[in-house]
Amino acid sequence: MKRIFFIAIAAIFISVNSFSQSSNIQKTAKSVFLLTTFKADGSILATSHGVFVSDNGEAIAPWKPFEGADSAIVITTGGKAMNVDVIVGANSIYGVCKFKVNEKTTAAPISSTKFSANAKAWLTEYSLKKPNIRQTLIKGAETFMDKYSYYILSTDASDETGGCPLLNDRGEVVALVEQAVSGGIGHAVDANFINSLTVDSKMAVHDPNLSKTTIRTQLPANEDDALITLLLAAEASSEKNYNKYIDDFIRMFPNSVDGYTARARKQLAAENIDGAENTMKEAVSKATDKANAHFEFSKIIYDKVVYNTDSTFSKWTLENALSEIREAYNIKQDPTYKHHEARIIYSQGNYEEALDIFTSLTATPIRNSELFYEAAQCKQNLNAPHEEILQLLDSAVAVCPQPLTNISAPYFLARGEARINAGQLRPALADYNKYDTLMVGNGAPEFYYKRHKLEISLKQYQQALNDIAHTILLAPREPFYIAEMATLYLKVNQPERAIKSCDLCISVDENFADAYIIKGLAQIQTNNKEEGLKNLEKARELGDERAQGLIEKYK
């Protein structure tokens, strides 16, 4: 029975193949192309087909060839090669995508009607010569997402037909043939569904489906969403793609400062100072918000000057940064601009002037912990009394947003250090503990080392041992911290543990003299004077000036 059915289908296929196609079908055939994707090493990954659906380079095609692709090209029926520029949208469930080339193209119209079961369709294959257009039968049609159709074809899937369009008698594209995977019955996906695909999410650069290709996605049309995409792309994308994202953003939003700022910072990272300067001058010229353009230019200059490691750098100075931010403030009296001006003045060493500005800003809408903290730094550099510094840090802690998060942690740490300087050790430990809580135990090794020293001062030896052990856990290759733990063990009369800590220290750095000093003293304390003197002698050989006196004392 099946054999009779397939013979009948074949007869239908042969008979309809002889029908003449309309001029519209012939015209649509020119919109079909050959798609080739490439790996990062330039080797061919996959081939398929697709069809242009707009005259500005938008096209629909199977998605599978793009998985693992680093680049792609299309070859038109006229033999012209075009690079795939961006992915507009993709759907891995139905294995289809929409992309764009940066050239004018011959568009195929998309049908607003659908095929029904047993309808006849024109299958249009790609060819550089006369297009191969033949009729096929729609064996079945299913609806998905309430309005799109998924078609079952009467013909088998093949590499030659994957991505080719199914047309109606008017030459309109109704569906796209799925990419063949392992042969079998062919299927086709509604062209309207594929054409509707967009990357309108600002999280597109982290989309697990779209991340299967390193070809970048199209920026969202909304400027705010596009900016978020640009910011995320700085970390998630390759340098090549990030540069293109910047170009896209500037092209789409030429009057926005953000694209120029991103480009200037990239140029700055590459030590192209002149390029960064020219880019920011262009931003000032073209941006709608010129105050913001001057502000961003000032920040770029400030960052380069303050964090510069090249002692010969003289292109910009803090005076240049100050000039730009004052220009911004002349245009728009934004307290944020005044805050940046105060930072520049502070970096110039004018602490009294900076203090006045920081203090005045605490009475504005941008009043926050950072302003009080920066004012406290000014006071510290001016050698103000401890009480004045602590008063400002108390205010910094008091205005922290509630509930407290790790964002507020640095202010507790700063107050804790100021309290140590003021001799307020127990309140300082409370601030250190609060800092550790807010950081969820993820402080730097230096923090736990400093807290262990504070705990020793307060005779909280077990807590100090815990903190120095945590310090070593975070920095296991630093012999100084291990030697500090050995010293503490010796102080609390646990010489055996001190010896073990010294052995660990020596295994990390066999030339670390402190370890031999501490081990020698610990051995003498356990009545192993002979071995203890040997270790003190080893410390002397390593140049430790304390060793000779200790040898004479115990010998």
Could you give the distance between the termini?
108 Å
Report the average pLDDT across residues: 92
> Percent of residues in helical segments?
40-55%
Radius of gyration computed on alpha carbons: 36 Å
Count of DSSP-assigned helices: 22
Q: How are the strands of the biggest sheet laid out side by side? A: 1-2-3-6-5-4
**Percent of residues in β-strands:** 15-25%
List segments where confidence is low: pLDDT < 50 over at least 5 consecutive residues.
Answer: 1-19
Structural class: alpha+beta
- Strands, count: 12
Query: How would the global form be characterised?
Result: elongated
The profile of the biggest β sheet is:
6 strands, antiparallel, barrel
What does this structure look like?
The chain has 555 residues and is an alpha+beta fold. 50% of the residues lie in helices and 15% in strands. It is built from 22 helices and 12 strands. The protein has helices at residues 2-17, 23-29, 191-195, 223-236, 239-252, 257-269, 273-286, 290-306, 318-331, 335-347, 351-361, 369-381, 386-398, 409-421, 425-438, 445-457, 461-474, 479-491, 495-508, 513-525, 529-541, 546-554, and strands at 32-38, 44-52, 58-62, 71-76, 81-91, 96-101, 120-125, 132-144, 148-156, 165-167, 173-177, 185-190. The strands form 2 sheets. Strands 1-2-3-6-5-4 form a 6-stranded antiparallel β-barrel. A 6-stranded antiparallel barrel has the order 7-8-9-12-11-10. Helix 19 (495-508) packs antiparallel against helix 20. It is elongated and about 110 Å long. The model is unreliable at 1-19 (pLDDT under 50).
